[in-house]
Design goal:
The protein folds into two domains: 136 residues, serine acetyltransferase, domain 1; 81 residues, Hexapeptide repeat proteins (UDP N-Acetylglucosamine Acyltransferase, domain 1), CATH 2.160.10. The protein starts with a helix and ends in a 22-residue tail after the last strand. The protein has a five-stranded parallel β-sheet. Strands 3-6-9-12-14 form a five-stranded parallel β-sheet. It has a four-stranded parallel β-sheet with strand order 2-5-8-11, with no helix packed on it. The protein is of the alpha/beta class. The protein has seven helices and 14 strands.
């Protein structure tokens, strides 16, 4: 294939879809600006005038991002107005999440530490903002947000997942929450937890593929819970490294049993296969 033919193919494939894409760098900048505005800020932003100015700048950035995929001015205005109308309630929910982490983790000394140093909290902030956009029918932009949080924290939460109040992720690296997951209130999750699908066939895209976690459940590190019909009952504890593909009733304790075997004189009682 000559270079000319190759370039023509690239251009043709780009033009097949008429949809434009949000600027990824601007999307990442926007989500960090929202996080700083809500929880960190600077001494220069602590007056009402300065805060309002910053708020309007963030709003304008959002409108420009949305305009990349929505051409109608009325749609851009509608989604911008709706999103920023919901920000106060999202902020309130996030404060509850921070309080839940503080109450749950003995290593957390204050809210400030949770806000600036806990990757689980950052991922939750991005999730709640992304989920609001997803509910509004804007889907590509929240996927950019969630993947940015994933790259920064190792926590992968699909913006379509439904997560209740007082949500706490401790450590967080390797956590995966799938698209159709439903999580209740006061749920706590440790690192390496997967809430995934039993079947990844494309034909099942519109069905519920991921589990439901009811209120006040604790899921310890390395646990894998799969399937759209799998329900973890309220108040249950799921131990580390558990593999679950079926429902458990309320107040269940599910754990992976570790067996202890004392070595005898033969250090290798069973044949070992080495693959190099």
């Amino acid at each position: 294939m000559t270079e000319t033919i190759f370039i023509n193919d690239v251009i043709t494939n780009k033009m097949k879809g008429t949809q434009q894409f949000p600027d990824k760098v601007v999307a990442e900048f926007f989500i960090d600006e929202v996080f700083r505005f809500l929880f960190i800020g600077s001494s220069a932003d602590r007056s009402n005038i300065a805060a309002l100015e910053k708020y309007n700048q963030i709003k304008n950035t959002f409108a420009s991002l949305v305009s990349e995929t929505l051409r109608e001015e009325s749609e851009i205005k509608q989604h911008t107005t709706e999103f920023f109308y919901r920000i106060p309630s999202i902020y309130k929910a996030l404060l509850q999440d921070a309080e839940a982490i503080l109450a749950f983790d003995p290593a957390a000394r204050n809210i400030s530490e949770v806000v600036v140093a806990y990757p689980g909290f950052y991922a939750t902030v991005v999730y709640r903002l992304s989920h609001q956009l997803w509910k509004q029918g804007v889907q590509l932009l929240p996927r950019l947000f969630s993947e940015y949080a994933h790259s920064k924290t190792g926590i992968d939460i699909h913006p379509a997942a439904k997560i209740g109040t007082d949500f706490a992720i401790d450590h967080g690296t390797g956590v995966v929450v799938g698209e159709t997951t439903v999580i209740g209130d006061h749920v706590k999750i440790y690192q390496g937890v997967t809430l995934g699908a039993l079947n990844v066939a494309k034909s099942l895209a519109s069905s519920k593929r991921h589990p439901t976690i009811e209120d006040e459940v604790v899921i310890y590190s390395g646990a894998t819970i799969l399937g759209g019909e799998t329900v973890i009952g309220k108040g249950s504890i799921i131990g580390g490294n558990v593999w679950l593909t079926y429902s458990v009733p309320q107040n269940s304790v599910v754990y992976h049993k570790s067996e202890i075997k004392i070595k005898d004189k033969d250090p290798f009682p069973e044949p070992l296969n080495f693959i190099i």
